[in-house]
Amino acid sequence: MCVGLSAKVVSVKDQTALIEAGGAQRAISAGVLDDLEPGDYVMVHAGVAIAKITETDDEEAADVMGELL
């Protein structure tokens, strides 16, 4: 089973996005998604933004992770 992390995009430059999740920021690959912009929410797996999600999806994912931890 794979686990993805939901995160908010802070900035995008070339094929790299700076994301924020859980108060921490990190750079990830944004090459899979064509139209990524600051303020978007994404699902991240293995350091790659694999899908755009909604803010509601992000909140739900955070709630589930909080229950698991």
Structure explained in plain terms:
The chain has 69 residues and is α+β, with helices and mostly antiparallel strands. It has one helix at 55-68, and strands spanning 5-13, 16-21, 24-29, 41-45, 48-53. The chain has a single domain (5-68), classed as Roll (SH3 type barrels). The chain contains 1 helix and 5 strands. The longest helix is centred in the last third of the chain and has 14 residues, at 55-68.
Please name the defining characteristics of this protein.
SH3 type barrels, 5-stranded antiparallel beta sheet, alpha+beta, 69 residues, single chain
Topology:
Elements: E1 5-13, E2 16-21, E3 24-29, E4 41-45, E5 48-53, H1 55-68
Antiparallel strand pairs: 1-2, 1-4, 2-3, 4-5
* Beta-strand content: over 45%
Main β sheet profile: 5 strands, antiparallel
Instruction: Provide the succession of SSEs.
Output: EEEEEH
Q: Number of DSSP strands?
A: 5
CATH class annotation: Mainly Beta
- Architecture in CATH? Roll
Q: What is the domain total for the residues?
A: 1
The strand line-up of the biggest sheet is 3-2-1-4-5
Range of helix content: 10-25%
Q: Using the alpha-carbon principal axes, give the shape.
A: globular
Task: State mean pLDDT (0 to 100 scale).
Answer: 91
Number of helices: 1
- What is the first-to-last residue Cα distance? 17 Å
Q: What is the CATH fold-level name? A: SH3 type barrels
- Indicate the structural class: alpha+beta
The radius of gyration over CA amounts to: 11 Å
Low-confidence stretches: none
